[in-house]
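Protein 1 of 2
SEQ + STRUCT:
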Amino acid sequence: MGEPGDPRWTASDFVRRVGDDVPVVLGADPCTPQELVGLLVAHVARRVAEREGEPPAHVVLSHPPGWGPHARALVHAALRDAGLARVTLLPEPLAVAADHAENHRARAGLLAVLGVGSHATTSALVRLAPNVEHELLAWSEEADRWAGADLDDLVFAHVAAELGGLDPAQPHLLPAVARLRRDCESAKRVLSGVPVTAVPVHLPDGRVDVELTRERFEELARPGVELAVRGLERLCRGHRPDAIALVGGTARTPLLASAVAAAVPGRLVLAAAPEACAVRGAALAGRRLLLGPDTGPDHGETSVLVHGDDPSLRFPVGQLAWDDAESAAPPPRPPVEITPLDLPTPLSVKRVVRRGLAPIGRSRRGGRSERDPRHRTRHDEDGR
């Protein structure tokens, strides 16, 4: 979250730092990780309310399995300060298990989960149970060892070497380097479906395309992939999973699937949108909370992340952001009685962190309300 193109005002991977006393610094202002989590979830809730025409009845937030009672309490407090009180926290492996049980009719058995995110790799064993809560038997999280961001760095290093050296510290190259890092991530994903792609490099004197083949990419990625698979193999030692679920954007990499199939016995399961498994599972858990355990299945595809079956369309190299105008508008909804969602006034991240992320309705110094009409115009003009 933050302002694109300016690393001083951009924060990433703060979710796994919840409870850490070291703050996240945006510009010159320190922010706790849980404050940023609260601001981010409130933003998502606003977008949902705008899109669906009604506020969410409940929020289910999936989180790393390493969060203990202290971290969960901090996040609950941050979410209450952001105007969200009806929130359930659910460990990511259990959210993945809920999605797996729904989509694969798995009502019992042992599920192994390997999640490769941007900054951490998680292995977990979950016991599926019919009509009751699934049980998290064991898990291990290997942060700062190998994850999707490391693959992005390898692609970036390959491109820089092909160009004869690219110094990311040179001030006049900062915009080009920031854009190149996003294109390297896109190229990594595109190679899940095509044998070769080109990474565009937008230098001050013109654009240069650097070719990258899947064979070369897998050569770069193999040591890290094997490290992640060994972690899952250790966790499954003495157990034979009925199924193995690969989740996270890096799960699309064919090398990861083949390495897991060769090392861990069990039926390999790869969802159509593996980066959204925990999100769908959290939504299913929320439906169960609201409507009860006997709710009938709903197998319609609702993920807004899926833009087509062609990986080159889903993750276009060189595109900076999705254009919402390109997506089809949702079908008209029947008239409903809309209850306004009491959420924070939209603020830019820069303005929020400068004000110290004061709780909604009062300033941290005990001053006037954020909803004071005398201040509303200033915030609305700058709010995003």
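Protein 2 of 2
SEQ + STRUCT:
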Amino acid sequence: MSVSLLEIAQLRELEEKYARILGPDVLMQRAGKAAAEYIRELHPETCTVTVICGPGNNGGDGYVCAKILSELGYQVSVVNVGGKTPKTEQAKEALAAWEATGATIYTNPYDTPKAQIVVDALFGIGQTRALVGEYLDAAMWFNERRALHVSLDIPTGLDSQTGNWVGGRAGCRADATITFLSGKPGLYTSIGKDACGEVQVENLGISIPLTKINLTEVKDFKHVCASRTKNTSKADYGRVGVIGGGKGTVGAALIAARSALYMGAGRVYVELVEEKMDLDPSVPELMFRDKLDLSEMDAVVIGCGLGFSEKAKARFIECLQSDAALVIDADALTMVAGDEELLSLVTHRRAHTVITPHNAEAARILGCPLEEITADRLNRALDLSVLTGAVTVLKGAGTIVCQRSSISWINPTGTPALATAGSGDALSGMIAAMFAQRYELMDCVLSAVYLHGLASEGCDSGILASDIAPTAAEFLQALRDSYREHFHPLRERTDPVRTDPVSWED
């Protein structure tokens, strides 16, 4: 199963439940201990540490963490920002335990000795207002230090649901975040991708309930990772059709088509609505047709460089009326945004349908300002799926995959290297290839999105869209080697292909 991501109401309910069962301070003690152990893993050699604590239970976690680190031999300074009395009894007790050690308690972080590690324990998931005053100053101090930056539960100032800054004011930026009980959506999408750094989830010994929001794992599409049957031919891996190629935009269609081939589709056909090509010299395996027979296609990509001509629209309508799995991207999404007839056809399709908008395309379809999309990408992705009936792939930092049922996934892979022309076209072709190979609906989408992001790992730039699918195919092969090594009855006699194999157990 996927890694569950809990929303604030669910987390509050869980905290209250286990406070009744275990006692009011047990979770705080566990959180502080887990944080101290995590910091020791990050920096095993004892060193100087400064912990900045806020007025709530997040600050309490910080006091507990500081005391345990001190007992482990670290030289710890603690800041009770502003010198205020903690608001909860648990945090008051944690502060008292630190005071009992006789150590100095600072009220201003700028007064502390230089530290090699700085720990943010100012505010957790309950923050609802923008940082101001001494707390804003403390967050700025945290960011300015030349040190290892660690946040407890969530970087101060970050909205745990949306991944944006609370009130639009930037807060703490961590190199590593240890989050408690479960992951939170905001850690993995939008600004959260930059603010959190490495994320470690610590469930504190608590059983976490299933949720409708998940972080994608390889196990979520493990059937795609199983080896192909040896006694097969190209006919077993389906036909993909790519329809695009308006004036001057042939490249978009070619990138999608090439990507479908690299990801395993048996045959890929290209229909160019305006331009004319009979051969792609770079990938001669692609086949060109003046007009595809949609009844022969297992999956179709429409929109990559399609243009907005009457011919393009007519072809789009024919695709919507076909029985092929359909991936709708780019220009086709813009057509849907301005045409009630097209939207109705999308909504009433019986075959699998996937839309792949970026934020601006999502705003056009929903008829709202772009700011409303960026303010809450998760819920806007759900709005798109409810409106269209399709599986939505809302591209961006922490791409969101959403079904109409409201079950959602946040994809953890991907880097800024994907911010390049044609990247979305490659993704569309990859999704279609999975459909052509007849995997289950969400296996197709989750695997393509995950592998698309994985192809960019380790790079901030320097990747062309044409590079994505070939690299993704290499990663898929590595996953298949790992899967085979794990499940093969003679696996003890084989050498692992990967040095970091996936754990395939549920």
